[in-house]
Amino acid sequence: MASQLLPIRNLGTAAIFRASHSSSFSRFLAQLKLKNFPFSSRPCRLVHRREYTGGQTFSPRSARSGSKSLIEDEAELSDWVSDIRKDAFHRKLSSEDESSARDRGTGSKVRDRDLLKSKGGERNFRPAVHGGPSSRRIRLGQSKRGRGDYQFGDDVDDDYTDDDNDNNDVDDDDDDEEDSDGQSDFGSDFFGDKEALKDSAAEGAGEKGSSVFSTDGDIVKAISQTSTPRSESYLSLARFDQFPLSPLSLKGVKAAGYERMTEVQEATLPVILKGKDVLAKARTGTGKTVAFLLPAIEVVVKLPPLDRDNKRPPVHVLVICPTRELADQAAAEASKLLKYHASIGVQVVIGGTRLALEQKRMQTNPCQILVATPGRLRDHMENTPGFANRLSGVKVLVLDEADRLLDMGFRKDIEKIVAELPKQRQTLLFSATVPDQVRQMCYIAMKRDSEFISTVVEGSEETHSQVSQTHLIAPLDKQFSMLYRILIDHIAEDVDYKVILFCTTAMVTKFVADLLAELSLNVREMHSRKPQSYRTRVAKEFKESKGLILVTSDVSARGVDYPDVTLVIQVGVPADREQYIHRLGRTGRKGKEGKGILLLAPWENFFLQSIRDLPLTNAEVPIIDPDTRKKVERALAHVEMKNKESAYQAWLGYYKSIANIGRDKSKLVLFANEFSRSMGLDNPPAIAMLTLRKMGLNNVPGLRSK
Ligand SMILES: Nc1ncnc2c1ncn2[C@@H]1O[C@H](COP(=O)(O)OP(=O)(O)OP(=O)(O)O)[C@@H](O)[C@H]1O
């Protein structure tokens, strides 16, 4: 019984037992997969906290040698992290956690509540028990070599700068910050705690909504006893007004229409308000933006107001986002929350707009909160007088879509930016996905006692259960007809349809959008080759409308909050598992239902292995009648030749970067020519010799050069 209710605690107990009886602790750690942290491997709802306060001394090799490679550091870091874990586990589990594991072993709600009481009185819940009903929290001790000691290196290759995965064309934008994909140079419900909180709130907190939070102490809050309707399960029981937020922020929150918090907001707010560095993971569309903006605004509120005579006032909060749309969206969310904070300003700096305009705007309307994409931010750091100085006032750094920003494509930019920021700051990293390798990088940018907070319990799916996921395997020559059929069927099913169709590259996106427009579907296209003004307009239109299909590259994969998307289709293998999850996350937001279809060629089905833990089923195979086939063929014939040529070249570049496909060049070319035929081109388009050389595909039989 107890083990069913408290798997993590029991794992902790097991850890102590086995640790103290094993001659090889590190082997034991490996068995427990401590690289992934020792959480239950099955879904459960509970709050978990591990403290890693190991006072390890991590020899700052980089401090001795100056600039060095991050890759080199990863190996060093991984040794260090496992050392910390070993030590921290040994010490912590054999003290605090061991006893609490035993105490909680009864699984009794009353017992849990008693435990809470003993830790701070009935109202005084420790953050450890707070973190949201299904969140878990780890405090990560860092070595003596903290954030500030780290020397960022230049050895990471990030030549590839195209989020759309097209690698052969030169983007005409001055800023490619969102255009990288890092692929290559191309191209039991644990009601114990929750109930205890509710009960205690009822007993102790008295009136609903009264805040008992103090950032100084360990008191967190009282939970009101509203029931959670199922359709709003993304919301927690907590309300914003139960937290010590400034009255103007609370007014802003209310005006934005938010009353109850989402789980990630509830879990992170008290920790961030305490000034801790936080790495937070929560599913897509669950309100992470507000989760980092609100406490960041509170930091600004507590600082002295801007000196009006200062022409270059400090930026206090710097939010970095991987795409322009996302930066715009975060700034818009900040503006909503700042509605009543007349003295706090927010501005956005993104590529695709004139640098001079942004410079002027920042001068005439100084802001304390700046939202930026990495490339443009660096541009300002290098070319805007006094800008670097303004950044010396940064108190809070936020990396939205942190794993993306710390991934190869952006890492170098982020390293350079972070190196210019004050070491005394709070760092917040948020994402729906945090792969292990990236998680280790995150710690480097954060302080010693940072916390990892996840509302996605280990062993549970990273995607939403209310989104049905299917896959369809079909040869390329059938895919466009199938795609058309799927769309037609979906439109017939739902007049309020709103579809996002992801393609592998910008040029393939363009081609598919052209094709679907030829088929008289109501499509819009979105990718990095479109001017920013167009992108902004289409994003707005798609946000506000229904009955539309957005054909897009990965510029729309992360973060963008289009409400009520009914279907997400992904054609071709996604860049990685994370990208699949983020793309799918454009539907099923805020607890809504949605559908996802992944359309792959037979030779792409290796990808299914990387998402085997997600609940994908076989999609119903659409029936392609001769009329549909003919219609699609006719439409294909109308698509401009140059668009097909560009799509072919981009396709080749993208798949060259997918290891499973690109490593066998002759197969790659066979598949590319299959793609060419699927576009109606029996004779594959010729590619410039220089481009072929750049792709490492010169002299490969089956390719035509010009
Ligand atoms: N407390 C709240 N109550 C109701 N709606 C909320 C609340 N907080 C945020 N939202 C809304 O939820 C939606 C999703 O939020 P947001 O875009 O921040 O999600 P996210 O977790 O960052 O998603 P992604 O992982 O895709 O970036 C937005 O429309 C936002 O306005």
TrEMBL record:
Start-end of Acidic residues biased regions: 152-182
Top-level EC class: hydrolase
A GO MF label: helicase activity
InterPro entries hit by this protein: DEAD/DEAH_box_helicase_dom (IPR011545), Helicase_ATP-bd (IPR014001), Helicase_C-like (IPR001650), P-loop_NTPase (IPR027417), RNA-helicase_DEAD-box_CS (IPR000629), RNA_helicase_DEAD_Q_motif (IPR014014)
Chain ranges of the DEAD-box RNA helicase Q domain: 238-266
Span(s) of short sequence motif Q motif: 238-266
Region (Disordered), start-end ranges: 92-192
PROSITE patterns associated with the record: DEAD_ATP_HELICASE, HELICASE_ATP_BIND_1, HELICASE_CTER, Q_MOTIF
Residue stretches making up the Helicase C-terminal domain: 487-637
Record field: compositional bias (Basic and acidic residues): 93-125
Source taxon at top rank: Eukaryota
Record keywords: ATP-binding, Helicase, Hydrolase, Nucleotide-binding, RNA-binding
Catalytic activity of the protein: ATP + H2O = ADP + phosphate + H(+)
Family the UniProt entry places it in: Belongs to the DEAD box helicase family.
Protein role: RNA helicase.
Domain notes from UniProt: The Q motif is unique to and characteristic of the DEAD box family of RNA helicases and controls ATP binding and hydrolysis.
Annotated protein name in UniProt: ATP-dependent RNA helicase
Organism: Platanthera guangdongensis
